[in-house]
Amino acid sequence: MRALRAVAVAVLSAAALAGCGPAGAGGDGDAAPKGSTAPGTSASAGAGASADPGTGATTSPTAAPVTSPVTSPSAGTGGSTSPTAGRVPAPGETLVRVTRTGGFAGRTHTLVVKGDGSWTQLDGEARPKGTGKLSEAGLTGLRTALREADFARLPRIATGGPTIYDGYSYVFVHDGHEVSRDQGSLPASLTKVLDALPPFTGGQDAP
Questions:
Q1: What is the pLDDT of residue 205?
Q2: What is each CA distance from 5 to 8, 9, 11, 18, in whole angstroms?
């Protein structure tokens, strides 16, 4: 009897072990664990995802392209320029101011020409001594001479010319530039400016 019981227990134990075989041998062992996904698909379709009605595949909405803000080219590209370079002064603005010192009497006189051609003679104390106005042709000639002199490129002070006894010294102020020359160091371009100016003395009736 004991031998039969031992055989029965062994058979039952073997049956129980056969029923608990490893997953994948058949039955429920083939089922994928909860939470797993098919290869090649995302675990979550993400916000706004939708299913393709034809294939059933899940697709995500296409993100809007990111563009950089368009900026205009810098206004300063190409180098900076003088704010007054080449600008025609308004009628009441000074076109050129020239101070002359020396001569036999050693006196100082200043001539101020405005943008409309009107001019004023000043003495050494900056007191008005005479006034007048250039003709249209005279004003055009003065502007041409000033432009051709190119004050921006002239050295502020230049020497080395021949000494002229009892000669004059000049200080020119034009377009924000100041240039000083002795009579013997005047270049031809500044001589043309002097020739286009009204006289430094002579009163209101001076031409």
A1: 43
A2: 5, 6, 10, 20
CB atoms within 10 A of CB 109: 19
Q: Which residues of 78-97 are buried (b: 16+ CB within 10 A; e: fewer)?
A: eeeeeeeeeeebeeeeebbb
pLDDT score, position 120:
96
pLDDT at 177: 96
Q: How far apart are CA 93 and CA 143, in angstroms?
A: 14
For residue 29, the model assigns a pLDDT of 43
Helix (H/G/I), strand (E/B), else coil: 99: strand
In one-letter notation, the amino acid at residue 81 is T
Rg, Å, the chain Cα set: 50
Token reading at 63: 């993100």
**What is d(CA 142, CA 160) in angstroms, rounded to the nearest whole number?**
27
Give the integer Cα–Cα distance in Å for 29 and 23: 4
H helix or E strand, kind and range, residue 78? none
Cα→Cα distances 156→3, 35, 44, 86, 95, Å: 132, 87, 78, 19, 18
Regions of the chain with pLDDT less than 70:
1-87, 159, 203-207
Contact 128, 183 (CB under 8 A): no
Would the pTM count as exceeding 0.70?
Answer: no
| C-alpha distance from residue 44 to each of 30, 38, 49, 88, 102 (Å) | 23, 12, 9, 72, 96
Cα separation, 6 vs 77, in Å, equals: 103
